[in-house]
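User: quick one, sequence for these tokens?
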């Protein structure tokens, strides 16, 4: 934008300078030409006065009169008397002199190296004389080159000055535009505290103020949604408390113990949801979570149900921590969706396998597979009686970490393979907590 403004200013100023300076240069040349001819007429008039006062038979007096005129001293003046020799130095053609005699009026005619001013004078005795003043081309253009050079310098100064001013103004506009773009980019990258200081032209100031208002409203809307999620989660506590009382009333045994553990886990999840939801969106900081540790924790929960349903399962990988740039709550939700999908959509006794590595998390099962992978990703749509949100949650978590979701046929178990391919962080990034191996 800055270079475009400079080019535009340069073009406009150049056209304006040419529009004024070209006619001015022509006028300057014409003024010099007219000034030289005016000087020639003045000297011719002086010679006419000398002719009128000089006796007609004294040629010596006429010669002395010619010598007293500056043009005569420089050899540029001549007096043509009809029928008598020419006094002085003549440059005009004889035909032009005869024409001036017959027309009896002043003429300006071309002569070698310049022009000649011819003024006809009628003397006593009806004698006719022609006073010739020669003006060279140098005299006709005297001072024109210096004037043109000054005009050219003025044009350069005007063009350069206007371009410099346009560059300074453009720098302010570009700086304000760049700051507005940087603020919008930072806000889009997740920095909800990003704001723009209004500066520059009124339009850019108004745009910056509008952006700041939009950012405040966006954060307010996000906080309102979070508060709504916290309120909805809190409303789950009442039925959960009733179910917990029923579970506590069950006789001791593995089933009752498993139900009480499930209620404890569910209560912890609801507490985390409420805590996370009530935090302002602008106060959230980027988080890093160990995928291996999350998978180990969730497998500890799901393995109890797998043993109860006689599901053969095994886990591979997980010997080294794998850090991904997503929050622990989001990663737990994605892992639970992947494992819960196996238990919900395959029959009891169906085997599954979990593999975790730097590539991400891969869950294979020996079930019937997924006939329509694209349909399974449509949010809110399910062909198996579920909410249709699980795989969409997994997809969003994968994309937030710079990865993607894979749904395909499992080569090992001949069922479905659902995988999260996440981009691991640099190995030297400090983990949020001590690494934990997956042990079955």
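Assistant:
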């Amino acid at each position: 934008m800055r270079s475009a403004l400079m080019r535009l200013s340069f073009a406009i100023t150049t056209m304006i300078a040419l529009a004024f300076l070209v006619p001015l240069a022509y006028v300057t040349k014409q003024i010099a030409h007219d000034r030289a001819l005016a000087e020639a007429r003045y000297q011719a008039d002086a010679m006419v006065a000398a002719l009128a006062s000089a006796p007609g038979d004294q040629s010596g007096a006429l010669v002395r009169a010619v010598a007293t005129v500056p043009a005569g001293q420089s050899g540029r003046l001549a007096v043509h008397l009809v029928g008598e020799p020419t006094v002085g130095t003549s440059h005009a053609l004889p035909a032009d002199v005869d024409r001036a005699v017959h027309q009896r009026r002043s003429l300006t005619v071309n002569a070698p190296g310049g022009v000649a001013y011819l003024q006809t004078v009628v003397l006593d005795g009806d004698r006719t004389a022609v006073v010739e003043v020669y003006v060279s081309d140098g005299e006709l253009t005297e001072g024109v080159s210096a004037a043109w050079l000054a005009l050219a310098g003025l044009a350069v100064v005007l063009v350069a000055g206007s371009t410099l001013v346009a560059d300074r103004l453009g720098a302010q506009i570009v700086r304000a535009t760049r700051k507005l773009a940087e603020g919008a980019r930072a806000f889009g990258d997740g920095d909800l505290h990003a704001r723009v200081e209004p500066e520059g032209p009124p339009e850019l100031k108004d745009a910056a103020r509008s952006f700041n208002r939009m950012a405040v409203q966006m954060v307010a809307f996000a906080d309102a949604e979070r508060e709504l999620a916290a309120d909805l989660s809190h409303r789950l506590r009442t039925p959960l408390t009733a179910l917990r009382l029923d579970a506590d009333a069950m006789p001791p045994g593995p089933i009752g113990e498993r139900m009480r553990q499930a209620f404890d886990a569910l209560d912890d999840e609801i507490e985390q949801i409420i805590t996370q939801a009530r935090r302002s969106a602008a106060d959230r900081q980027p988080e890093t979570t160990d995928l291996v540790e999350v998978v180990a924790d969730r497998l500890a929960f799901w393995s109890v149900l797998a043993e109860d349903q006689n599901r053969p399962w095994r886990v591979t990988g997980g010997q080294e921590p794998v850090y991904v740039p997503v929050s622990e709550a989001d990663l737990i939700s994605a892992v639970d969706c992947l494992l819960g999908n196996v238990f919900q959509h395959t029959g009891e006794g169906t085997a599954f396998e979990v593999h975790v590595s730097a590539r991400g998390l891969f869950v294979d099962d020996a079930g019937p597979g997924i006939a329509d992978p694209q349909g399974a990703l449509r949010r809110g749509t399910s062909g198996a009686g579920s909410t249709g949100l699980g795989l969409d949650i997994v997809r969003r978590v994968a994309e937030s970490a710079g990865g993607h979701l894979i749904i395909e046929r499992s080569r090992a178990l001949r069922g479905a393979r659902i995988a999260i391919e996440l981009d691991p962080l640099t190995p030297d990034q400090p983990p949020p907590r001590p690494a934990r191996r997956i042990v079955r």
